[in-house]
Amino acid sequence: MKTRIAFIINPNSGTGKKESLPTMIQEGLDAKKFEPEIVFTQYRGHGTELAKDFAAKGYEVIVAVGGDGTVNEIASSIIHTNSTLGIIPIGSGNGLARHLNIPMNVKKAIQQINESESILMDYGVVNGRPFFCTCGTGFDAYVSTEFAKGTKRGLMRYVEKIITGYFSYKSQNCHLIGDGIDLKAKAFVLTFANASQWGNNAYIAPQASVQDGKMDISIMSNFPIIALPSLALQLFAKTIDKDLFMTTLRSDEITLLREEAGPFHYDGEPYEEGKEVHVKTVADGLRVLVKKRF
Ligand SMILES: Nc1ncnc2c1ncn2[C@@H]1O[C@H](COP(=O)(O)OP(=O)(O)OP(=O)(O)O)[C@@H](O)[C@H]1O
Description:
Tumour Suppressor Smad4, 2 domains, 27% helix, 15-stranded mixed β-sheet, 8 helices, binds adenosine-5'-triphosphate, Rossmann fold, single chain, 15 strands, nucleotide-binding
């Protein structure tokens, strides 16, 4: 019996052209193993509805063809089902795909599906919303909000928003409370990491694992501009957790109390969140396709 596999393509992800994707999928997928169905989303949130239908019909694999926002829409519908999430990364950041070592090249990512296996991974929940890569407040939420306001996507738009944002963003007073945790900090960045990076190989939580039943909580305190180049280098060298301006905690459940309600993000999708934010990890709640190990 062939594996029924659905591809849900977000035409709005990243900057590349999407018209040729169905042909590439048909040509690259092993026709002896898979029976594909390929659809495009029509509007924001449509991926969640489509994935729910495919999961209810018993599709074994549902592939998010997009970035972390698309992964979030689709994975949210297949948690705790027998369907497995696949990813073809065509977004701007692709944090979860990079964490899982999924090739950034579309052809290679399709080929990898032919030689993949399903594993269980954790996901997070922030005030009732699932997230799969990271969520947080502070500068990264600010950047996500500014990025979403623009009509253009892609890596260079992120770089532009980061540089202009450094000068206008103000740090927040935060209080984190959890099992054995009681920490007050003025946070420039506060990230709850299920996976290790924001995307684009910016490792805000280099030690985070999607299979340990816990999240890493990365707190970057206020820093002088002179420290910016070394922080940026360490972010990409997977060593930011060693920096003097960083504190890292690990927990399966935590509450954040902050002075003001305001910007927050889940998997890079910006929204407004209240003063009290509860974040927890759900262990082994999602099946995901990764390269076969043996
Ligand atoms: N058909 C559509 N039209 C408009 N927006 C859509 C459509 N389908 C999905 N979306 C929305 O597009 C947004 C961006 O998608 P996605 O996150 O995949 O790409 P990205 O932002 O370029 O990549 P990344 O999240 O990796 O940085 C998401 O908020 C998603 O809900």
